[in-house]
Specification:
Conserved hypothetical protein from pyrococcus furiosus pfu- 392566-001, ParB domain, 5-stranded mixed beta sheet, alpha/beta
Length: 124
Amino acid sequence: MLSLRPSDIHYSQDSINNYFDSKCNHSGVLIGKTLDDICEGSDIPKITVVKRNGKWVTANNRLLWLEKLGKCTHIDVYEGFSLPTEKLTSTNVGVTVHVRGNLGSYYLSRWDSIFNDNNWYRNS
């Protein structure tokens, strides 16, 4: 198992939904609710990363903001071999991602200076 800083992992997509879809355990849950749960002590789920052009990339884009909020320094990750082609939509090498819709988070509303217009910026 690898452990990486979230800022060392790049977004694969240019935008993401504000809630989890039916393909995961958190179906229909706002991503802001997940952040609130983690801020209140819930475990950070492991994500899968793939090495592409010398950079770690993930299709699990929704957890990468945690380091910027001071909620973790490292995320445990599984190393995968490929990402679905439909998930490779980033136009800026995975530096930012736009969230479609309201985030629905108490904690994110307190960090407005970090999140402008629902664009999540990376340290890279």
